Amino acid sequence: MIRVRTALLTVALVLAGCGVPAQDDPHRVELPRRPLNETVAPTVTEPVGEVAQVMCLVRDDRLVQSVRRVDAVPGPQRQLDQLIAGPTPAERAQDLSTALATTALTVTVPTTAVAAVEVGETDERAARSDEVLAYGQIVCTLTSRADIAAVSFQRAGRPLQVPRGDLTLTSEPLRAADYRSLIGPG
Which of 37, 69, 111, 112 could form a disulfide with 47 if both were Cys (CB 3.0 to 4.6 A apart)? Predict the structure, then answer.
């Protein structure tokens, strides 16, 4: 019985202390906002798109995540194609670049959540050829997706040995943690 009285007293005190006086009749309330049908030009430009897409780019020999806003979640191949295309003008203005020296990358994602990336021959005319950063860009970009846990590389369907962040070679599937020593602040 004491608990019930205490609970009722607490509820009464909370209701009385909320600052809204009790009224018997409804009345008009003026809200401090504009009408919903009024159009106002935004004062701050928000990023376009509903989905955050992570791209791993390079700044000062470090991997840096850049977030792009897109309308829908792109497939793994589309995201890889965008990585190959390089940084946007806004990303270049932030001194971001790419270490990718190839345009021939194809990704498939079997049901195991390990993406298999087919690597074609590299373009010898490319400006950069730092393989560790290039493979790190691919791994970090693709594993930022919810549907990909690791990335393996192959050439002509055969496993390809690629460098980890510590420069050791492996043909095993790689994760972003394998490039932890190369990941820098954004």
Answer: 69
